[in-house]
Amino acid sequence: AVAPDLAGRHVVISAGGTREPLDPVRYLGNRSSGKQGYALARTAVARGARVTLVEANTGLPDPAGADVLHAGTALQLREAVLKAAADADVVVMAAAVADFRPAAYASGKIKKKDGQEPAPVALVRNPDILAEVAGERARPGQIVVGFAAETDDVLANGREKLRRKGCDLLVVNEVGERKTFGSEENEAVVLAADGAETAVPYGPKEALADTVWDLVAARFGQIA
Ligand code: C5P
């Protein structure tokens, strides 16, 4: 049995990847499977938390014991996360949120026309949900956790991102061949705002999830 060290805590987790529609049949998307977010949800339930999982386009079955909300786009995910965060003790942004969305949505399918070059797709910025949640802190002592997939200068970029977003913990993944996207395994370093670094060796996504909860529970211990 697992120690119920998250009992009485409400944790909000986002998982999956947003899809930003161009027209009724097309979207800009990403390769996030949602598996890391679901592992976070399952392990949080096991440790006694009340879990709200905000899922985007994962197609995964709802984890037992969690309240699951569904979002398609970044704007929908933002709305669901901000609402749930209002009474959350912890918010973990594991979802891959599109940084940009098409500036315009065509209500009919965009058609190719003979002899014409395709029109360029104009993009606009999506709001940064993690930075918003971390900046507002709906509750005193609320713990905010982000994820970052980096291809180079992983730790330096991670440190800079942690500071810029204002979160307490940032899980930094090096994106590579068999790692992270769609895989059952992950390898990461968890950076903390106080400077601590916790390396998590290549292994099941549950192991990384449990390390995140260990670090969160330790922070509750300091506050309480
Ligand atoms: O800036 P970058 O996309 O690398 O940051 C990744 C982290 O920020 C993830 O935790 C992701 O969920 C979050 N994010 C967000 N809103 C965005 C973009 C990213 O909350 N628009």
Automatic annotation (TrEMBL):
Listed cofactors: Mg(2+); FMN
Domain DNA/pantothenate metabolism flavoprotein C-terminal residues, every copy: 6-217
Transmembrane segments: none
Chain segments carrying region Phosphopantothenate--cysteine ligase: 11-224
Keywords of this entry: Decarboxylase, Flavoprotein, FMN, Ligase, Lyase, Magnesium, Metal-binding, Multifunctional enzyme
GO MF term (any one): phosphopantothenoylcysteine decarboxylase activity
Function: Catalyzes two sequential steps in the biosynthesis of coenzyme A. In the first step cysteine is conjugated to 4'-phosphopantothenate to form 4-phosphopantothenoylcysteine. In the second step the latter compound is decarboxylated to form 4'-phosphopantotheine. Catalyzes two steps in the biosynthesis of coenzyme A. In the first step cysteine is conjugated to 4'-phosphopantothenate to form 4-phosphopantothenoylcysteine, in the latter compound is decarboxylated to form 4'-phosphopantotheine.
Protein name, entry field: Coenzyme A biosynthesis bifunctional protein CoaBC
UniProt lineage: Bacteria, Bacillati, Actinomycetota, Actinomycetes, Kitasatosporales
Boundaries of the shown chain within the full protein: 180 to 403 of 403
